[in-house]
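lol ok so funny story. i was supposed to be doing the assay writeup but got distracted and ended up predicting the structure for this chain instead. priorities right. anyway since i did it might as well share w the group, maybe its usefull for someone
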Amino acid sequence: MAGRDQYDITPRNREILEFRASRRNALRQEFLKETLNPHRHASGIGGAVFDQQLQRLFSLDATRAQYVTAKGKNFAQFAALTLFPIVSIILVINKVRRDKETEIRTGKISYRDRHVKFV
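and the output, tada:
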């Protein structure tokens, strides 16, 4: 039937998905083979299954300082994404509060119209 061969993705994307599925199944079979081996504990190995990808990640975390160095561009990105927004929000909030306090102290807002009252 022609309906079984029609998909709503491109052939390239279908090929990628099939490759990922086959790779996932192969890794799953390898994991099951290692975990369900009854002779594994007799050989003295025991414990968890050794995962190479996790070991790479942990090794990268341990040696990250050797590969990432502080540069001006890194600091500029940090300042633009972290420091600048925080400082700008603080300045805006302080200006709004200062203006409101000035209006209250000069009498432009009567006590009855204030949102926060002590009575």
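The radius of gyration is 31 Å. The helical segments are 11-35, 52-62, 64-67, 72-106.
back to the writeup now i swear
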